[in-house]
Each structure stands twice: as structure tokens, then as C-alpha cells.
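EI: anyone free to look at a 426-residue chain?
SC: sure, send it
EI:
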Amino acid sequence: MQYTAVLFDLDGTLTRSEEGITRSALWAGEQLGYTGFRQEQLKAFIGPPLYVSFPEIMGIRDSDVDEAVRLYKERYARIGWLENEVYPGIPRLLRSLKKHGVKAFIATAKPQVFAERIAERFGLLPYLDGIVGPTTERVSVSKADFVRRAAGLAGGAAVMVGDRCYDIDAAKEVGLPSIGVSFGYGSREELLASGADSVASDVRELQRLILGDKEPARGLFISMEGMDGCGKTTQRMALVRHLERLGWEVTVTREPGGDGIAEQIRRIILDPANEAIFDETEAYLYAASRAQNVRAVILPALTDGRAVVCDRFVDSSIAYQGGGRGLGTERIRELNAMAVDGCMPDLTVYLEMAADKAIERRRSAGEADRLERQKDSFYERTAAGYEALYANEKRVLRVDASGSIEEVSGRMLEGLDRRLTALAAE
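SC: here you go
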């Protein structure tokens, strides 16, 4: 069937939310003297309203339920909503829906204010056409009411997607087809027993059920640049962890390097024994490694809808060989044109650090490779090459790399989130 809109449940369908929900429920119960529960026992809180879950799951007396809900919301508003992550593959699904003009909504029993906060914080909001949920006040509204409201906003042929029987029951009550997802908090048996039209075991299967054989969206290409010693390796790990929390399936690669062939070229370039390599030879070796990496690693991953994080790309050659070696930035750009064949990053994270500070940090870190043994003047020309290259380059996120690891990560990830939102809007 050709759907024009998809209504998603949130917890257990778009996000893995058990940590924040179970910890908040556990904390609320303990404040009222209801102890002895384990987080694992409280997964059943995901799905039904709190006013149902507290008495049924934790045995909280009717006279204590209002206070339990208040305490739960207090902790959840403070920290629980952040104890969350997006299921792997969800960004690709939402990007694919947007690519083909299929509207996407959230229809949830979670208070709408929290759903909106989560959608924004975890990168979902730019792909959504609306979010429908209850207020934070106690109201007797069923999940079907939110699904009905979302369906009214969506119009056309909508389908409900959820992980629990409550989602499937709501879809049936509203008269919508439904797809259950067994990667959430309900079983395949529960979903089929409730009357789900089909059940997806993972996000890729869900995408096929919604879009059929339509071409999925391309992935996301991020490169990382900076002087040797700026902290790229450490910050790359932070960036990858953040992307994974946002639901991206990530492929990490580097330059020179990538697959086995490109890694062999890397060893030739960086081996201190190869001091006789001419500057022009070095430039061609970098381009050769890049051509291999693009075709063997980067393009296949992007076609598969993954996020690619590449430690250095063509900008490094322009700065290091074009500027540092003095071969000329335009000559290096032309040399690499065939190597990249139009495959350029959607976003480049540039960790800014003064050349002398970067040199000092790198040389104190351990044995230097062939490139790292160059004179200070080489690095000064390289730094100038970066500055000239990035003077008016819009795809570049410039990050001050001075300060503690945590401070740099914070600046980088805050900027990254803004850029990802802008890219999604495009």
C-alpha cells in the first residue's frame, strides 16, 4: 500500500527510552516508600499511562498515585528525558520518508512537552510534520485520541507504527492500518495478537514495509580536519558516540587509509624510512589512497544510508601538500578532482589550534611519523593553508580546540547539532 503519512509512537519505536523511564519510576516509588523493585521489572511502564502503571506494576495505593506521578515527572523533566537514544537506522528512515514526500508524525501518550523536547534534542524534529500527545495535567484521554488527532493532521493514507499492543489497539479504533515493531518493548506475539497488519523486526524491515522498493535516502558524510596534535582522534570518538546516540549507523575511516589497499599506501607515506619521497609523489600517493577509500569505503556506506566519519579528506591535501609543501592549492585541488569524483563531505569539523601549540602537543605524544618530523615552517604554511581554504567555506564547522577534552567536545557537539538541523531542513 502507498502511504502518504506515518504516525510513530515514540518510546520503543523511535527511541530506546527505558533508562529514563524506569529510573524515574524507581525513584518516585522509593520516595514514597515503595522499595525492592529492579529497573528490569519496570519496563512495563513503557506504553501505558502513569496513572495505570503505578498501581498495577508497583502496587501504589490510589491515595499515593498523584504524588508518585508528580515525583516521576519531576525527575523525568530534570534528567530522565536525556537518558535516551534513537534506534539505529531511524535517521535514514525519516530522511527517506522526507525524500519521497511521506509525512511523519509522533502520536504518543507521553506528555507532548517531553516528546517535543526529546525530538529536538535527538535530531528527529526537522523530519517531523507534527507531534501529538497529552498535556502534563492528569486527563482521561486514550492513545486512540492522540492517534486520531495525528491522523487528522496527516490526512491521506496514514499508517500507525508502534511497539506495544496499545499502539495497535489505538490504530484499530481509529480505523488505520498498523505496523508493529518487535525491536521495541513489545513482543512479536503481542503485536500480532493485537491485530498488527505486519511486524518489523528491525528498522530496515520497517522501511521496506512503508516505502517498498523506493530508493532510500543517502547517508551523511562528515570529515574531520585540523593540525596534527589538535586532538582529532579523541574528538572523533566523541563525535561517533554522539551520532550513534542520535540513531546513525556509523562507518569510521581515515586518510591516508581506508581499506586494505589504501592502508598499504598509508604505510608508504608515513614510514620515516621513506625520506626520499618527492613532494609531488607524496601528493599523488595521498590522492591514490583517497580514490581507493572513496570507492571502497565511503560511497558504499553512504549508499547504505550510514553516517561516514572520515579522519582527514581532500582538505588535508590542499593544506598540507598545497600549502605546507608549496605545491599550490589549485594544483592539489585539480589532482584530487578525479580521486573524489564529486564525493565531498556534507560537513567538515575543523579543530582550530595554533600551529606552535599543535606541534608541541603532537611531539610530546610519542614517536613521530615521516610527516610529523617536518620543520616548524612546514606546519606554519599548512596552518595558513587551512585558514585560506576555510575563509569562506560554508560546510565547515570551526571548533576552538583549546581547553579540556570535555570543553572541546561540548563546543563541537553543540555546533554539530545545529548543523545537522540545518542539513535536515535543506
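EI: The first strand starts at residue 5 and ends at 8.
SC: 👍
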